[in-house]
Amino acid sequence: MSYKAKSKSTGNGLTEISEMLTAKELESLLKIDQKTIYRYVACGQIPYVRIQSNIRFVKQQIINWIEEQNYCPDSG
Known about the structure:
This protein is of the alpha+beta class.
């Protein structure tokens, strides 16, 4: 189950809604164990949102983070 949360204003008076993911949903998306996800959170290696004792992940931030982690060797 995905969660929705208010994110930022789009400038035209509307508020953009960002999809929020649980660690279990992120595990399925990234194909890595929840323990690894929580270790990344503890080390500050992955973007997350803390809502009291709950950890959630903004899907667009995760997609951006994945793009930053991408490594393409020089083909020269």
